[in-house]
Amino acid sequence: MPGGRVRSARVMRKLYGKVLQNMGKKGLHLTPGTTPKALVAQIVARSPHAEEDAARIVSLYERVVFGGQSLSGDDKREAQRAYVRLKRVARGWRKAA
């Protein structure tokens, strides 16, 4: 269903944008050219235990935005939970100089 794919892409773009904004505020060096995989690498460099959540968000983002697939309700909830956990982890980071 095309409408579902459009809504899914909108949801994941918004969530991914929130991840970028939050991680940027916490000192990750993000540029317009930062790839989703590079984002995961930077998060893991700061908090190795956050790899699963960061990778899951990126995987869903790529699948939906670039692969044209729809999110299931479970996928959407999982992405939201992963984002909340990433925010919690990032609270303990000191902003890099």
Write the SSE topology.
Layout: H1 2-25, H2 36-46, H3 51-66, H4 73-91
Structural features:
single chain, 97 residues, mainly alpha, 0% strand
Describe the 3D structure:
- This protein is mostly helical and 97 residues long.
- The protein is 72% helix and 0% strand.
- The chain contains four helices and no strands.
- The protein is globular, with a radius of gyration of 13 Å.
- The termini are far apart.
Quick gist of this model?
With 97 residues, this protein is mainly α. The chain has helices at residues 2-25, 36-46, 51-66, 73-91.
Structural class by secondary-structure content: mainly alpha
Q: Report the strand count.
A: 0
What count of helical segments does DSSP give? 4
SSE order, as H and E? HHHH
Strand composition percent = under 5%
* Share of helix, binned: over 70%
Overall morphology: globular
Q: On the 0-100 scale, what is the average pLDDT?
A: 92
Distance between the termini: 46 Å
